[in-house]
Design brief:
- With about 1250 residues, the chain is α+β, with helices and mostly antiparallel strands.
- The chain is about 30% helix and about 35% strand.
- It contains 33 helices and 45 strands.
- The strands form 3 sheets. The chain has a 24-stranded antiparallel sheet that branches. Strands 1, 2, 3, 4, 5, 6, 7, 8, 9, 10, 13, 14, 15 and 16 form a 14-stranded antiparallel sheet that branches.
- A hairpin with a 2-residue loop joins strand 5 and strand 6.
- Helix 8 (about 350-360) runs parallel beside helix 10, helix 14 (about 450-465) runs antiparallel to helix 15 and helix 20 (about 540-555) runs parallel beside helix 22.
- The termini are far apart.
- It comes from Gouania willdenowi (Blunt-snouted clingfish).
- One of its GO terms (molecular function) is nutrient reservoir activity.
- One of its GO terms (biological process) is cellular response to estrogen stimulus.
- Keywords: Disulfide bond, Glycoprotein, Phosphoprotein, Signal, Storage protein.
């Protein structure tokens, strides 16, 4: 008996078929997509068929499929059913019913073979069927784990077995961990520059998958025979954290044994090709765009016609209804062979508009065809430099990073046309570096030959001491981020290179920054080099600071941070110390996941460094950062500002700004700008004669006088250098040298570009520019148990357009000197259009060339600004006029619309494609449909805000919005974005029957009989800004904190210093009171049949001992009206700022006042208080205030404020803001009926109040004593 049992167990473990028998199964596979919520539309696919398996040899079998039926689903699960697609079934059956060979040994499928004319999609579907035969049985263990190959790749599986004692059948349950496969059948496209962030993924995931199989196996003489098998794969996806609501995919399949019979005759089949093993195979899917489907036969005439139509309908302004067709055009172009591109070029090259559209669109072909086409254009030189630059930049940026394409791209580096223009050559070299970076991102071992041309350029430029080429080569190596370039880079770095190095600071800067991307690929090498540079105190200050920055971008260990901290304690260069301290300060407070570990090390370092460097002033080099990250959304942002200075120059040596976006486990480096001022640094030196540091008019005059000596700057280095990076890749940099300045300043030369532009404007010109641009195409593919490709894609497309028609009249005519413009009347008439339309899609579903189904988010945002103006300018009289025609028809300036759809499409029935809103309109109108859903979980709003009209100017503004939403409280935050959304901002003609011709706008700065000088005017405006800033800044921050009044963190020190300068500034003291306005502004509605109506505003200035005041008077101009508004502002020597506002009849009807003053808290910390008092205001404002006040308690609770019921002054609101610590503030706001307060509110940057008080304690002496 035991021997029989053992034989049965051995047979079960040996899964196999008898090659002399025929096995017939019934197979059914189904997938559906939706939200898994009641009453919401879903989409799905179902395939049913019969399968026969016959033996060719003991290890080789034939699979045949018959009785195929393919069905689609798009609707409500409880109301609708699957619908059969006869045409699609017929097309799939034509390939699927052909025989397939496969090897089958001990339960494992290998070497699948098919006819050469069978598509990859069909072979993958067969893999989904054969996947049921592919598993491991161990009869000696009831529970076991294996890492084995399956349709999802090399993944970890857990097995559990259970034996039926009566039938001897074995039930086997297999669970596959498809989220953590060692070699996963998955693919990313378009995300090479989006850096993976493992720390973000530890906080949550955007995709979670589960997969389970259940098999029934019975023993036979040949081995274990599968009698029934079921598979269930579930996936949850969200653009945010899946814990906050998600889309759901469910794929089910079943295999049931129908019969086992003897094989009557051998199966015949034709030639077969090996198509690989059981693992899902990806193929080139560039043309299979998931967000649309079209017939791709005869693509050339279709693409030609579509380009012509898009160019025509967008010839003046952007037609937002056609912008989605650019995606169709991309898809068609990806199907066109190289010869077809040449044909289209011949068709379009003679028409500037069509030519531009064609060149802008072919960049998305992204394979060898577009490289070959662009190479032909470079050789023929039939592109302008601007066309070549733009096209090549985008071609290289969107090109697939394949080995053969990288090799082909090298040819552009040495082409004569490339070298014919400096900017074009820079673009080619930088773009090639970016291509190498993407190549290395896709291949674990990135071969050195890919980056060799850049290494050769760097080596040769160093040998020839060619500084511009050194900078170019190093910047390109920085883009490539290839670890093998380290050996070349260190040759440019003093103290690291094996030979002495004496290079300009801008070359050293480029060399240090070239390691920024290598820091992630070879952090230890970068850390060794940058630490070495940082410790060399004889190096230029800015180079040491850059080395420190790159060091910390390599995510150093706690021990390395401790080493740097120990050296900083001995640092005597205050610029290096200040930069390092503020950088560590930002890291310590950072909330983004990438800084999670290093922030702890930064906090410990700050505690050691704070006593010595915590009080350095803002005049030293600094690093600033603001960031946030939300775990519910898995989204965050960060902005950095870096200012590098040195003791040898007044002017900053280098300034940089960076921005990052964190989303679903990746870091997108958005934009980075940088500027170096080597020439200016030498021009200004350590001081500027006459510069006081308060940026008064005298300071600007001193700077201007120094700039007049620009001719003394050296010829061998640029005055200013600037660069910009996107997604971490530098794509543009430029040097402003003396020759360029000379060309700009020497405007007397009639051959100068500026003179030509003025002449062209006098003759009149028309200019139209349209730029379609696929901002990103990010795609993720993953196998499913059905053998169908699951795709998560994001497409962001924009079409930008500008049209300008203009003509100028200059009186008297120019006599050869452009300086005459300063004494001429200039009139310009212009009309045109500025706008764009941005389309955004997110697709989650199945996408093949035959069919699509899934969930699709779709949004559109058009901006449209048509204009027509007449402008007049007289510099001698300081007068500017602008006339705008009266509005005659409604204009939609901006709109945003979006919805989420259930999608089904198939290539055989394109006209029957279904794009159904996931939340159908009937949901909100049919009570039967919403049965079982609580009313508080869904709503529909349709709001058109009352049009705010100005009858005077004949124009109104309105905002329309319509929202349809369905909420489930446990599904936050995804459901905030689901449903129909439409919002629009419109400008409409006023309903009043007034007939207007135009709106006249006029600024007159020369109205006074005793006009102020430019010096006096700037000083007046400077002080009035200061006065108005306190209440406005107070309003801003408290609204952000409480939607009531803002917080202000400006210090008592700053205010007092400003008043000291005010009282001591001879320019301010020299200002005399004048009854004439300093500046006059008129805004009139003009009509040929009526008197002008509108408003007249005047600004007055008075100066008294110890204080300065400014007044603004606004008067309404119309018959039978005496409405005025009077605003009086002042700031005194004690830094008390006041504003008194009166309005109504002769400024007597209503009034309110605002006073802001410094204060001292009981803890001796400085603070700022603001009080708003309204003795009399209109009833309408009272009503608005009461409505607003009703929201305050709830908002206060939400923001963590406490509330105390108490009677305060009526008709008054006051607020006080004080610094409680270096990175927190206390806020108290008093309203008439209660007080709300909160202590120790975290502040994203160190409180200015806190820091400024510390500055007053004299930092330098303490550092010297240390």
């Amino acid at each position: 008996m035991r021997g029989l049992l053992l034989c049965c167990l051995v047979a079960l473990a040996n899964l196999s078929f008898n090659p002399k028998k025929t096995y017939e199964y019934r197979y059914e596979g189904m997938v559906n997509f939706g939200l898994g919520a009641p009453n919401l539309v879903e989409s799905g696919l179902k395939m049913m068929c019969k399968i026969k398996i016959n033996g060719v040899s003991p290890q080789t079998f034939v699979l045949q499929i018959s009785d195929l039926n393919f069905e689609e689903f798009n609707g409500l699960p409880k109301n609708d059913t699957f619908n059969s697609s006869a045409k699609l079934t017929q097309r799939i059956a034509a390939q699927l019913m052909k025989p397939f060979l496969f090897d089958y040994i001990r339960g494992h499928v290998s070497d699948i073979r098919a006819s050469g004319d069978v598509s990859d999609t069909i072979v993958n579907i067969v893999r989904g069927v054969l996947d049921f035969l592919h598993f491991t049985v161990k009869t000696t263990q009831r529970v076991y784990e294996l890492e084995e190959v399956g349709i999802h790749g090399m993944c970890h599986s857990q097995y559990a077995t259970e034996e039926n004692v009566d039938t001897k059948e074995l039930t086997i349950t297999q669970v596959v961990d498809v989220d953590n496969c060692r070699e996963k059948a998955a693919q990313f496209k378009g995300m090479a520059t989006a850096v993976p962030d493992k720390f973000s993924r530890q906080r949550g995931a955007s995709v979670i998958s589960t997969l389970r199989y259940v098999y029934s196996v019975k023993p036979t003489a040949e081995g274990g025979l599968i009698t029934k098998a079921q598979g269930l794969e579930r996936q949850h996806f969200s653009p945010f954290n899946v814990k906050g609501g998600n889309f759901k995919m469910q794929a089910k399949k079943e295999l049931v044994l129908l019969s086992v019979t003897d094989t009557s005759r051998a199966i015949t089949y034709g030639p077969m090709e090996s198509r690989g093993n059981i693992v899902y195979k990806f193929f080139n899917s560039e043309a299979h765009v998931p967000i649309m489907m079209q017939d791709l036969q005869e693509p050339i005439p279709k693409a030609i016609e579509l380009i012509r139509r898009l160019a025509q309908v967008n010839s003046y302004q952007i037609d937002s209804t056609t912008t989605e067709e650019t995606i169709k055009l991309y898809q068609l172009l990806r199907m066109i062979p190289y010869e077809g591109l040449q044909t289209m070029w011949v068709e379009f090259s003679g028409n500037n508009e069509l030519r531009r559209w064609f060149l802008d669109m072919i960049v998305e072909i992204n394979d060898a065809r577009v490289l070959k086409f662009l190479e032909a254009r470079f050789k023929a030189r039939d592109l302008s430099t601007n066309e070549a630059l733009q096209t090549l930049l985008l071609v290289f940026d969107h090109l697939q990073a394949l080995p053969e394409l990288v090799e082909n791209a090298k040819a552009f580096l040495d082409m004569p046309f490339t070298r014919s223009n400096v900017l074009l050559r820079q673009t080619v070299v930088l773009s090639y570096g970016s291509l190498v970076y993407k190549y290395c991102a896709n291949y674990t071992t990135c071969p050195v030959p890919a980056v060799q041309p850049l290494l050769d350029l760097a080596t040769e430029s160093l040998r020839q001491s060619n500084a511009p080429d050194m900078v170019l080569a190093l910047k390109a190596l920085g883009n490539a981020g290839h670890p093998a370039s380290i050996k070349t880079i260190i040759r440019f770095l003093p103290g690291v290179s094996a030979t002495p190095v004496d290079l300009p600071p801008r070359v050293l800067s480029a060399a240090v920054q070239s390691m920024r991307l290598i820091a992630a690929r070879d952090p230890h090498s970068v850390q060794d080099i940058t630490l070495n540079l940082f410790l060399q105190k004889e190096l230029p200050t800015e180079i040491r600071m850059l080395a420190f920055m790159i060091l910390f971008e390599s995510n150093p260990s706690m021990a390395l941070v401790s080493t740097v901290t120990a050296h900083l304690l001995q640092e005597h260069d205050l610029h290096v110390a200040s930069f390092a301290y503020t950088y560590l300060e930002n890291v310590a407070k950072s909330k983004t996941p990438e800084n999670y570990q290093i922030s702890t090390a930064g906090s410990l370092a700050l505690k050691l460094l704070a006593p010595k460097f915590g009080r350095l002033s803002y005049s030293y080099s600094r690093a600033g950062r603001m960031d946030w990250f939300d775990d519910n959304y898995l989204i965050g942002t960060a902005v950095e500002v870096l200012m590098l200075k040195s003791a040898t120059s007044f002017f900053p040596t280098e300034m940089m700004t960076k921005s990052k976006f964190y989303v679903i486990g990746r870091i997108l480096q958005l934009m980075e700008f940088g500027i170096r001022a080597d020439g200016l640094k030498e021009l200004f030196g350590t001081t500027i004669p006459g510069f006081n540091g308060d940026y008064s008019f005298n300071d600007f005059l001193a700077i201007f006088k120094s700039l007049q000596n620009w001719e003394v700057m050296p010829n061998d280095r640029p005055v200013i250098s600037a660069y910009t990076r996107t997604s971490g890749q530098e794509w543009f940099f430029a040097d402003v040298n003396k020759d360029l300045i000379r060309n700009i300043i020497m405007v007397r030369d009639s051959k100068s570009p500026l003179w030509a532009a003025v002449e062209g404007l006098q003759k009149g010109f028309s200019w139209h520019w349209t730029k379609p641009f696929l901002i990103f195409e990010a795609r993720y593919f993953q196998a499913t148990t059905l053998g169908l490709p699951l795709e998560i894609s994001k497409y962001y497309q924009t079409v930008n357009g500008i049209t300008v028609n203009a003509k100028a009249t200059i009186n008297p005519p120019l006599n050869g000197k452009l300086t005459q413009l300063l004494h001429s009347d200039i009139s310009v008439e212009s009309d045109g259009f500025i706008g764009f339309t941005k389309d955004f899609w997110v697709f989650y579903g199945i996408n093949t060339e035959l069919f699509q189904c899934g969930s699709e988010f779709k949004s559109k945002m058009p901006l449209s600004i048509p204009y027509k103006v007449t402008a007049k300018l007289n510099m001698r009289e300081k007068k500017f006029e602008l006339d705008i025609p009266a509005l005659k028809k409604e204009i939609e300036i901006l709109s945003v619309s979006s919805n989420v759809y259930a999608v089904t499409r198939n290539i055989e029935e394109l006209a029957l494609a279904r794009l159904t809103p996931m939340i159908p309109d009937s949901f909100f109108t049919n009570d039967e449909i919403v049965t079982g859903v609580p009313p508080n979980q869904y709503f529909m709003t349709s709001i058109k805000s009352p049009t705010v009209e100005s009858n005077t100017y004949g124009v109104g503004v309105s905002i329309e919005s319509e929202l349809k939403r369905l909420y489930y409280h446990e599904e936050y935050p995804l459901y905030y974005f689901l449903g129909y959304t439409h919002m629009a901002l419109k400008i409409t003609p006023a309903q009043a029957g007034k007939s207007l011709d135009r709106i006249h706008f006029e600024i007159n700065a020369g109205a006074s009989k005793q006009p102020l000088s430019m010096h006096q005017m700037l000083a007046t405006l400077k002080q009035m800004s200061q006065v108005c800033f306190w209440p406005s800044s107070l309003s801003f921050i408290a609204v952000a904190a409480l939607l009531l009044l803002p917080l202000s963190v400006l210090s008592e020190c700053c205010l007092q210093e400003a008043m000291k300068k005010l009282s001591s500034d001879p320019a301010s003291a020299g200002l005399s009171s004048t009854p004439e306005p300093v500046v006059g502004v008129k805004v009139y509605a003009m009509s040929s049949t009526q008197k002008p109506e509108g408003y007249d505003a005047s600004v007055y200035h008075t100066a008294e001992a110890g204080a300065i005041s400014a007044q603004l008077i606004v008067s309404q101009v119309a018959d039978e009206t005496n409405w005025k508004m009077c605003v009086d502002t002042s700031v005194d020597r004690q830094a008390v700022a006041k504003a008194h506002i009166r309005w109504g009849s002769e400024c007597q009807s209503y009034e309110m006042s605002i006073i802001t003053a410094p204060a001292v808290l009981p803890s001796m910390r400085p603070a700022l208080t603001t009080k708003v008092h309204w003795p009399k205001i209109p009833d309408s404002l009272v009503d608005i205030g009461r409505r607003f006040e009703s929201y305050i308690p709830g908002m206060a609770l939400f923001l963590g404020f406490s509330e105390q019921q108490e009677k305060n002054a009526s008709q008054e609101v006051s607020a006080s803001i004080g610094a409680s610590a270096a990175d927190s503030i206390d806020v108290m706001i008093k309203l008439p009926e209660y007080t709300i307060y909160r202590q120790a509110i975290p502040f994203p940057v160190q409180s200015i109040i806190y820091r400024e008080q510390n500055i007053r304690n004299s930092t330098t002496e303490e550092i010297g004593r240390a």
